[in-house]
Design goal:
single chain, alpha/beta, Dihydrodipicolinate Reductase, domain 2, 9 helices
């Protein structure tokens, strides 16, 4: 490895342009080395970066250190496995894969290659979510009993039509926005024990669900409820943790405020996320690569798979399968 970690970005979609590329460019130990894209014109804004049509071509370049996978979900496993097999580290967008089997193949390849595999659940690095976990461990709300999250809106999918294609996205808001909240709850409490849920498409009549409700049993008897909707004209971004002795509110989840309410009264703390939500996860991944320490990852692949397992249990429950 040179004095810079050389990144290849597979996929140049909305999130890549708005957040991932600026994060890599801003991280001082990183270099945006190239792109994997079927349309090389998308890379023209970055003339110093190379462009390849396939992941296999990109990872054949010995200068490549890390591949960030920002492709449609159905392509995550294949791209990650190709990169890992070529000896490259991988940071992958969420959810990890379109199904648990794909995620397990990614993990197996990471172990076989000895390379680092991380999943880009960047909310784990929100200062207020880290603070909430600390408060829970210190007993600020007593025994926690319920975590609940709502993420509602009416997204315009123009230019991102693949999100409504089950063959490419796996599902609708269950895969897209519920995955972040499911992961956040497991970050707080640990791996889920069982899950079920409801899916519907009663409003927008899409090929994927336009609403999903997930119910999880988390360690310690905590109930986790995540409700996500693409069928609400009212935007909501709510996240609360309730305990026997109080509650912690993170509303809105992407905002700066944390509010604790317990027997001692109420107090608020302002703990804003980074201006670029993806920068901390890119920085964290570079730390892990340079140290050769996957245990320092915000979300290692093994934990990223937990959310895929929740999603699969919800889908199977809806289909009436064990």
């Amino acid at each position: 490895m040179t004095d810079k970690v050389h990144w290849v970005l597979a996929g140049i979609g909305d999130i890549a342009r708005k957040r991932v590329i600026p994060a890599i460019l801003a991280e001082p130990r990183s270099r945006l080395y190239g792109f994997v894209t079927r349309d090389p014109l998308k890379a023209r804004e970055y003339p110093s970066a190379r462009a390849w049509a396939t992941i296999e071509e990109a990872v054949a370049d010995p200068e490549v250190d890390v591949v960030y996978i920002a492709l449609p979900v159905a392509m995550h496993a294949g791209a990650a496995i190709a990169a890992l097999r070529a000896g490259k580290h991988v940071l992958c967008e969420k959810p990890m894969a379109i199904n648990v089997a794909g995620g397990e193949r990614m993990l197996a390849e990471a172990r076989s290659s000895g390379r680092i595999l991380g999943i880009s659940y960047y909310r784990r690095l929100y200062p207020k979510l880290v603070r909430a976990r600390q408060m829970i461990s210190e007993g600020a709300i007593g025994q926690p009993v319920l975590a609940e999250a709502n993420c509602h809106g009416w997204p315009d999918l123009a230019g991102r039509e693949w999100l409504a294609d089950p063959a490419m996205a796996g599902g609708g808001p269950l895969y897209d926005v519920a995955s972040h909240r499911i992961d956040a709850m497991q970050f707080l409490f640990g791996k889920f024990e069982r899950a079920c849920g409801l899916l519907s498409s009663a409003v927008r009549r899409m090929a994927v669900e336009d609403a999903a409700t997930v119910v999880m049993e988390l360690p310690g008897g905590v109930h986790g409820v995540v409700d996500v909707r693409w069928n609400s004209r009212i935007d909501r971004d709510q996240f609360r943790i309730l305990g026997v002795e109080g509650e912690i509110s993170l509303d809105p989840m992407n905002g700066p405020q944390l509010r604790l309410v317990n027997r001692n009264g109420s107090r608020a703390e302002l703990l804003p996320p980074h201006a670029n939500l993806h920068y901390p996860v890119v920085q964290n991944f570079v730390d892990a690569v340079l140290a050769g320490d996957p245990t320092s990852l915000a979300c290692p692949g093994e934990q990223g798979l937990w959310t895929d397992q929740v999603i699969e249990q919800v889908v199977r429950a809806r289909a009436g399968r064990p």
